[in-house]
Amino acid sequence: MATLRKNRHLTGWLLASPLALVLGLFLVLPIAMIVIVSFWGATEFSIYPAFQFDNYEFLFGSPVTYSVFLNTFKYAAITWAFTLVIGFTVAYFLAFHVRSLTWQIALFLLCTIPFWTSNIIRMISWIPFLGRNGIANSTLISWGVIDEPLDWLLFSDFSVILAFVHLYTLFMVVPIFNTMMRIDRSLIEAAYDAGATGFQTLTNVIIPLCKPGIMIGSIFVVTLVMGDFITVRFMSGSQSANVGRLISNDIGLLQYPSAAATAVVLLVTVLIVIAILLRFVDIRKEL
Amino acid sequence: MTDKTAAGLSRRSLLKGAAAGVAASAFPAPMIWAQNIKDITLRQFGTGVSNLNEVAQKVKEDLGFTLEMTALDSDAVTQRAATQPKSFDIADIEYWICKKVWPTGNLQAMDTSKIANYDKIVGIFRDGKLTPDSTIAQGTAPHTVGFTSGPGGTDFVAEESGWMTLIPTIYNADTLGIRPDLIGRPIESWTELLNPEFKGKASILDISSIGIMDAAMVCEAMGEVQYGDKGNMTREEIDKTMAIFTEAKKAGQFRAFWKTFDESVNLMASGEVVIQSMWSPAITAVKSRGIPCVYQPLKEGYRSWGGGIGLSANLSGLALDAAYEYINWYLSGWVGGFLMRQGYYSAVPETSKNFMTENEWGYWFEGKPATDTITNPQGQAMAQAGETRDGGSFQDRMGAVACWNAVMDENQYMVRKWNEFIAA
């Protein structure tokens, strides 16, 4: 009996260990490393182990940090709002308006086609389109809508958010579509039978039942936007900054400890945002 | 018992190894050199300008060994040279990067007595003077970081000590690039970069150590800031410079900032930008698309840069011999001619002359009108007969250097201020 129990313990440990090992090596260890390095010191060309708060002191003491974090939140919030509205609409259309499963799958695959090319290519292809002499401006001029090319189309917050929305809407569509497909159609019929209008059905039945999908999509979009640096760099013509760019600048200048400190603060911020999001929906329960 | 055996074995193999080592160093056997050199692979990395596949091919043909090249941007080059000394054999870096990297001891000093053309190297890299009566420009002038006290030295010495940190390979004088067709009037001064006339159509490069120099050239030309040394600014000078540029940025002067070569080409070629900091081959790239673009000489002078190759401290034995062989080959003319036909200068121009036509030498080096179409090494036309080079001859251009690319004592402060400028 005792040996059996021992064996069961052993089996349990053995079964858990591969995952624990993978997570430990590839998640916990790197993050621990980043936290440790964030307390180190740096000279111009080297870093040295230490335990000092200089990096954090400088980070929290600089007005740039606050404006950059604010900018990052701004991008995240606006992108989130747009991807949510567009993503929800697309998912709703796919789930409730397209009746045949074949078409649903076909149209869903259509949505993913842009993802067959690289992220960066999809983003950069906006540049010639939006430029001063780009397709958008020349079309508008030839239509007589504008006389002068619009400069704010490219290298502005507009182009940054446009690229974000373009890149990340699918991450909203997929989970919302998934939850919508699981909604029992008889619930909607019941709502109609009870005399609810289409809008009432949407707000009282469909949206509450889609919450987990919306939440998962939101987590994707918010974390992707907050962690991005390359989109902001290219689409703003290097003129705007977000936290990712602060980190990449520091790395470029060999200031690893300072980059690590910024990364830690960003990580904590994103975790707080996700914790707040999770307060609204218990994903575990809903799934 | 087993432990004892193990210890005995390892001691014995250690002795064997040591004996072999002594034997090898006592008889360096030059006759096997020719065969072995074919097996040698030297790993070179550096900025895109001189990391050219043509050079690697020619090395294989002329010298027999393999040269592997990796091109990176200047931040990444600095990073790699400073932190990953084992990842390269030859570092192709700029002199200001050398100032940062040399003190780490990752590079080894080079014995100038092994450099055949040492005496023919241009004065800029030796005593700092192009001609005996020229003044030395501000910034990290190459000769100030070109020599060290001896083998193993991690310091810099002022005189020609016989131990070089980098062997100069390539250098040029940089200025602003303009689109003459979209500007339509002569441009003569650095101040034009911040001229409100070009609001939303100007750009500057987002590599702090070089961008700050261009910014300083502009502020000094405007008369807004007087610098003791633009290559080594005080905190106050940095603050003033960045304040002027931040104000301009907020007023919408800049269309974008660029960090890579192709970004600068696209900005200029698409007409997004009509005046910007630019590098010479970028001008060529714009021109080769049939778009007019001028590397405009300005009255305040040029911002200049120079690069050289340094040897990794890990190089020794046959690989080190091969590296010296490579350096001597580099200075012997073929590469120089190849680079000069792209608009750069070679450290030993006179050897390059043999590898260029009279027309090419006249156009690129002497500033004479071309007598026939000038093509680059890839065969693209760069200039038609009758045209002269922007800025004129070697003496005119390199003699009008106002400042060398530099790394400042207040570098960290400057970088922070630069980041604030980008985020503003």
TrEMBL record, chain A:
Topological relation to the membrane, as annotated: Multi-pass membrane protein
Tagged with keyword NADP: no
Subcellular location(s) per record: Cell membrane
Entry's transmembrane regions: 12-40, 75-95, 107-129, 152-177, 214-236, 256-281
UniProtKB keywords: Cell membrane, Membrane, Transmembrane, Transmembrane helix, Transport
Limits of the ABC transmembrane type-1 domain: 69-277
Gene Ontology CC: one annotated term: plasma membrane
Short name of one Pfam family: BPD_transp_1
One GO process term, biological-process aspect: transmembrane transport
UniProt superkingdom: Bacteria
InterPro entries reported for this sequence: MetI-like, MetI-like_sf
PANTHER family: INNER MEMBRANE ABC TRANSPORTER PERMEASE PROTEIN YDCU-RELATED, INNER MEMBRANE ABC TRANSPORTER PERMEASE PROTEIN YDCU-RELATED-RELATED
Family as reported in the entry's similarity comment: Belongs to the binding-protein-dependent transport system permease family. CysTW subfamily.
Protein name: Putative spermidine/putrescine transport system permease protein
From TrEMBL, chain B:
Swiss-Prot/TrEMBL keywords: Signal
Cross-referenced InterPro entries: SBP, TAT_signal, TAT_signal_bac_arc
SUPFAM superfamilies assigned: Periplasmic binding protein-like II
Superkingdom of this protein's organism: Bacteria
Claim: Signal is one of the keywords in the record: yes
Transmembrane segments: none
PANTHER family: SPERMIDINE/PUTRESCINE-BINDING PERIPLASMIC PROTEIN, SPERMIDINE_PUTRESCINE-BINDING PERIPLASMIC PROTEIN
Listed NCBIfam families: TAT_signal_seq (TIGR01409)
Protein name: Putative spermidine/putrescine transport system substrate-binding protein
